[in-house]
Design a protein that fits this description.
Elements: E1 2-7, H1 13-20, E2 24-30, E3 34-36, E4 41-43, H2 46-54, E5 58-60, H3 66-73, E6 79-83, E7 101-105, H4 117-123, E8 130-135, E9 145-150, H5 159-183, H6 214-224, E10 230-234, E11 237-246, E12 258-260, E13 265-267, E14 274-281, E15 287-288, H7 289-296, E16 304-305
Parallel strand pairs: 1-2, 1-6, 2-5, 6-7
Antiparallel strand pairs: 3-4, 7-8, 8-9, 10-11, 10-16, 11-14, 12-13, 13-14, 14-15
Length: 306
């Protein structure tokens, strides 16, 4: 089957590689090169780099405008596949391929429609996460679902690890759906159940609230790690929390109260403490939490805050 593939981040690469092994990819659409690092060096997207390795034609477009639509239409794709491209597919491009477009989404739809499904599901403490492949329609992530599956995940994994697992599992599901569309056996079922939304995270979403139970704080930590990053304030200093877990067999502390141990810092919550192992104070390199605390502490009564 002649496919056009649209994606940008590393999470889209497993699907691209899987489909390229069995189908004709007539074009890979991805976002333009972006400045990265302290020197702001223009760098191709992860998908662009993977497509180049595979020898596939690349279309770099910030949005799927008239020019991009014309280039894609001229290639006569039978199906469009999109995985985290970062832009909307509108008409007439939406109807250009014979079979339209399908989208691999990293949630069990209709849960967590939007840009940050994995992060929002982890923050909410969802017991089950998974992937869905659905027919792309103008409404946000609202199309009928060709296939979905719950994906077993490492316990207490952060968002980056969870996304990597879902990306690889979702590649196989997408390949199954594409094969079904090619053979005429694929059936899409309308979404049913409660809809929840997953807007893009902001810096404020990473703020840890020590007045909440430790389970809720840890869920937020997992959801915002590594981006936009979990953080708190200690005195007037903003501190990024890089590694943390609920403390085991620790005495309860007042919310925000800090106590040092040999392994890390215990910070009090509404229930049991959270153990913070690595931090990154503003303007400094990542370091062990205990090393930072020894250099910072001037008053044992200082607390972490919002």
């Amino acid at each position: 089957m002649r496919l056009v593939f649209a994606g940008t981040p590393a999470a889209a690469i497993p699907t691209l590689r899987t489909l390229a092994a069995s189908h004709k990819i007539v074009a890979v659409v991805t976002r333009p090169d972006a400045p990265l690092g302290r020197k702001r060096v223009l760098t191709p997207s992860p998908v662009a780099q993977a497509a180049e390795e595979l020898g596939l034609p690349i279309i770099k477009a910030a949005r799927l405008d008239e020019e991009a639509t014309g280039r894609i239409t001229a290639l006569r794709p039978e199906l469009g596949v999109i995985v985290a491209y970062g832009g909307l597919v509108r008409e007439p491009l939406l109807s250009t391929p014979e079979h339209g477009w399908i989208n691999l989404h990293f949630s069990l739809l209709p849960a967590w429609r939007g840009a940050a499904p994995v992060q929002r599901a982890l923050i909410a403490g969802d017991a089950e996460l998974g992937v869905s492949v659905f027919q792309l329609v103008p409404a946000l992530d609202a199309g009928a679902v060709f296939g979905a599956r719950v994906v077993p995940l490492p316990p207490d994994a952060n968002a980056d690890v969870v996304l990597d697992v879902l990306a690889h599992d979702g590649a196989g599901l997408t390949a199954e759906v594409v094969a079904g569309i090619a053979s005429g056996t694929a059936v899409a079922v309308p979404q049913e159940g409660e809809v929840s939304l997953a807007p893009k995270l902001t810096l404020e979403d990473g703020m840890l609230d020590w007045t909440l139970p430790v389970e809720e704080i840890f869920s937020r930590f997992r959801g915002v790690t590594p981006e936009p990053g979990a953080h708190t304030t200690v005195g007037a200093l903003r501190v990024k929390v890089l590694d943390a877990a609920p403390a085991v067999d620790a005495e309860q502390l007042a919310p925000g109260e800090i106590a040092a141990t040999t392994h890390g810092l215990l910070i009090g919550t509404a229930t049991s403490p959270l153990e913070v192992r690595r931090v990154q104070p503003a303007g400094k390199a990542p370091m062990k939490a205990t090393d930072w605390w020894r250099g910072f502490r001037g008053d044992d009564t200082i607390r972490a805050g919002a």
